[in-house]
Design goal:
Elements: H1 2-17, E1 23-26, H2 33-42, E2 47-52, H3 55-64, E3 71-75, H4 81-93
Parallel strand pairs: 1-2, 2-3
């Protein structure tokens, strides 16, 4: 019961910080449930980079997110986020207009 309440509160906090069009990282893809949640939050114009060191987790997440083209699955540890996607993130930010996160 407490874990469910914590999970709901965590999702509430994330929903207050993430906007349509944002780029986010899911550090542990697992079965893809959190990646799916993030993919829906950022929408078609956003991007989710989802990491996992387990091939089975990447496969499970890929199956769940088959219809989402705003997710990049990375079979690697999240400790390599800087190597794997920071240069891509920087390139995406060039030319993107400033987003005002205060207008919710």
């Amino acid at each position: 019961m407490i874990l469910m309440q914590m999970n709901n509160y965590s999702k509430y906090l994330i929903s207050q910080a993430v906007c349509l069009g944002d780029t986010v990282v899911d550090a542990t893809a697992g079965n893809g449930n959190d990646t799916l949640y993030l993919a829906n939050l950022v929408g078609a114009t956003g991007r989710v980079y989802s990491f996992d060191i387990q091939a089975q987790a990447i496969e499970n997440t890929a199956a769940l997110l088959a219809k989402h083209d705003n997710v990049t699955l990375i079979h690697d540890g999240h400790q390599n986020v800087d190597v794997r996607c920071m240069s891509t993130l920087a390139l995406e930010e060039v030319g993107r207009p400033n987003q005002d996160k205060t207008s919710r």
